[in-house]
């Protein structure tokens, strides 16, 4: 509770839109990862050290050592999910099972790591009209630490629509439900535990809209990092055998 | 599974609006209970025997014997919650704990029996504009028996708005989430177990709108009756002591 | 997270065994409440201020002001549940719904407040053989903050037996499962949320055995107090109406 | 509910112990699959048609067509998990997501399909002393259809020990908890939903002990088959996009 060692956060982004589409680069001049990292640093200050990594880095910036030195990993991907190496995905999975927190963002619902941790298709209903739609993010779990200090609702003026049915396992905690102009609803903030690792999925955030500059979205991500941090005694594999009776 | 004995259903309604407000009586000429009962009979046929009961009946139509002969109780109330006798509420609670199914409808969220079973305030956000709002009821649990054969979404053209935060315990199953024209969301179909009794809360349905004639709403209520029926071996109190080791 | 204000803890105990049975007073010379309070002070130090209250105190030591100044309330009762005033029970309930943490201990499973918050009978299987039985408390939720730093399993040499079926609603989190010499099992550490209040039930602890001096039991209770503390922004009633669309 | 078409059940067993170890073949002369299939036929009669399949069959007896004609698949494996083809595992997964029920038995906790559906290591504590230990299987969810008509507790005189921590995600339903002579506990009956498919894991059952002839174990498996059967409208992939507003 009185952690004096900063949480080590890695913000991972495939980083393809920003490097190939000028209109996206204009929205996120430092990359989506840059915007997310800036938000975490702004809100959490010395509570964290934040590094970024992208698909183009050696081993995607997720080597064994880099993961061993990560307490919480944020994941943004969209058009290059299949370019992520299976070996890296399995490595990330092992670290999550050992206690590393994982925050999966927006279109990361179709990432290999999310599907691998949850087992389902993670598919959803989708629409992206010209100019986007208004998304309202409602808190249905007011005592959850991820919702601390967050507006009821968060108003995001322009977003693409993600709707139900969202094919995920029943979450441990349902924190946020979004509605869209078209009337759809979406479980937009959900948590899971896998092994010793805590997982938070949060859907607001897109390459075409400046959602990661939204102060309330930044607040949720900062809360999420705190929540997903390993508890003391984590980062160990479960024992498989103990033949002696108690 | 191959039950040849019909389920015994009691539809309870306070029955005050219909007897004091001609405009409500015009919408529900046989009472809200009458409309609900007709829907169950229409869809479930010989699978059920349906009786109705109201506040004005002796013991509100919920005597010990009447409850002992009820497999599933549906509850609609709104402006007369405080006129329901505490003794009857406790009697209903005991039957639910013993295995009787309970389906609480719409404004019944503030009924004594619902609050007594759940422990929370059961309060919610509310608005009833002239002419109502469109409610879309989304199924987020497609394999749940209560959602069997139900449209995605159910479209209800005119309803009052119920919104989050809805102060209930975490439900066992979240089946439906509604959105409203104003952008609010609501966990509109949720289940709980208390003792041996299964509880289903379903919010669509109001005295000012003909919601209980809506074919899809009728389908949900019929599914709910099947789901809430006691399993074999229910309708018994839990043992409190068994001093002999196994 | 960096709370500098101590958590205000009230340890409530009916305090009847210790004042009427010398053999119990010999085990708990400062009362069960005294032993629990000492354990919390020992482990949490300046993180908490601890007061005790008993049935015999005016308003049972749970006046409106005393509750308003309590962040987490621990509750131990056994033979005097029915002597607790209904008015005080309802007052405690309102504070829990508003955000006060509640930790219910051992035979408190039959307290008015526990039954009132959960809605069920809270009954269980029971046996108290001469000399007690060995209870093993297994952690099935290793990342839960209540289990932090706790042995796997906790070994309690002498206890009475509490066994399943334990008639409670499905808990939010299942943290501990106990086994007993006789072979019974029991969900001995479970959590619930009601309104803004967090509730933890922990069964180890009895007037006939010195369980509240056990270092591991003290660790669990200290963890429980931290976990049940209100989150920022709690201690407020939910809004019931908001007629303006977003 | 009034299904006149029998459920199509496939009992899959790796079938290695029985064909290579005479002492196991003596316990299960028709194979573990044969014993399980006989129990289902005995209890469910014309409600089911049961076929068996083993590792040695072409495509392990789990071709696309064979899976398409299976409503519920039971899975027993132990020493040959790694010989199961990845292609078949992915095929099974797709059918589960589309609605096929899956019942994973005992040492199948380490099967590829179970780990693939759940995402965790699925490891556990283990001991197999000479002659086994007594396992008591306690029902903690008395209204669950899988527990219908089952003794409290089920007594299995000889079993190997499986204990916590069992590294699985939080189950949808916790139905059974076992204790063992050594004092360990285990969540021995748990359910999950993945996509449209229902999954039941049940731990009692081993090649060295005649557990699959135990009448109560057979009752649980028969209940499990009924429970895991696809609901009407299942066996379809979720829609991924619907660009038109409602």
Assign the structural class of chain A, choosing from mainly alpha, mainly beta, alpha/beta, alpha+beta, or little secondary structure.
alpha/beta
Biggest sheet features of chain A: 9 strands, mixed
Alpha plus pi helix count of chain A: 7
This entry's quaternary arrangement is homotetramer
State which percent range the strand residues of chain A make up: 25-35%
The CATH architecture of the domain at 7-122 and 189-228 in chain A would be: 3-Layer(aba) Sandwich
Strand order within the widest sheet of chain A?
Answer: 2-1-3-4-11-10-9-6-7
Give a nutshell description of this structure.
Four copies of one chain form a homotetramer. Chain A is an alpha/beta fold. Chain A contains seven helices and eleven strands.
Q: Which keywords apply here?
A:
nine-stranded mixed sheet; 246 residues; two-stranded antiparallel ribbon; Rossmann fold; globular; alpha/beta; homotetramer; 7 helices
Question: How would you sum up this structure, described in words?
Answer:
Four copies of one chain form a homotetramer. The first copy, chain A, has 246 residues and is α/β, with parallel strands linked by helices. Chain A has a domain of 156 residues: Rossmann fold (3-Layer(aba) Sandwich), CATH 3.40.50.880. In chain A, a hairpin with a 4-residue loop joins strand 9 and strand 10. In chain A, helix 3 packs across helix 7 and helix 5 packs across helix 6. The two termini of chain A are 32 Å apart. The mean pLDDT of chain A is 93. At the A-D interface, helix 6, strand 5 and strand 10 of A face helix 6, strand 5 and strand 10 of D. Chains A, B, C, D: It holds the Pfam family ThuA. Chains A, B, C, D: This is Trehalose utilization protein. Chains A, B, C, D: InterPro entries: Class_I_gatase-like, ThuA-like, Trehalose_catabolism_ThuA_prok.
């Amino acid at each position: 509770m009185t952690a004096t060692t900063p949480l080590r956060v890695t913000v991972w982004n495939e980083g393809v839109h920003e490097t190939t589409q000028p209109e996206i680069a204009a929205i996120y001049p430092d990359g989506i990862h840059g915007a997310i990292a800036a938000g975490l640093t702004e809100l959490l200050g010395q509570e964290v050290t934040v590094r970024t990594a992208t698909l183009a880095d050696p081993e995607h910036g997720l080597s064994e050592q880099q993961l061993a030195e990560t307490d919480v990993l944020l994941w943004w991907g969209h058009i290059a999910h299949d370019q992520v190496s299976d070996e890296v995905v399995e490595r990330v999975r092992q670290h999550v099972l050992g206690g590393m927190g994982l925050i999966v963002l927006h279109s990361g619902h179709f990432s290999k790591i999310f599907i691998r941790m949850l087992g389902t298709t993670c598919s959803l209903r989708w629409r992206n009209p010209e100019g986007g739609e208004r998304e309202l993010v409602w808190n249905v779990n007011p005592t959850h630490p991820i919702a601390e200090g967050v507006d009821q609702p968060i108003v995001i003026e322009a977003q693409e629509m993600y709707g139900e049915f969202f094919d995920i396992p029943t979450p441990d905690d349902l924190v946020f439900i979004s509605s869209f102009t078209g009337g759809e609803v979406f479980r937009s903030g959900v948590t899971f535990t896998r092994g010793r690792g805590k997982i938070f999925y949060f859907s607001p955030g897109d390459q075409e809209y400046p959602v990661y500059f939204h102060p309330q979205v930044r607040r949720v991500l900062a809360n999420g990092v705190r929540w997903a941090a390993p508890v003391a005694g984590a980062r160990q594999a479960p024992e498989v055998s103990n033949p002696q009776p108690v």
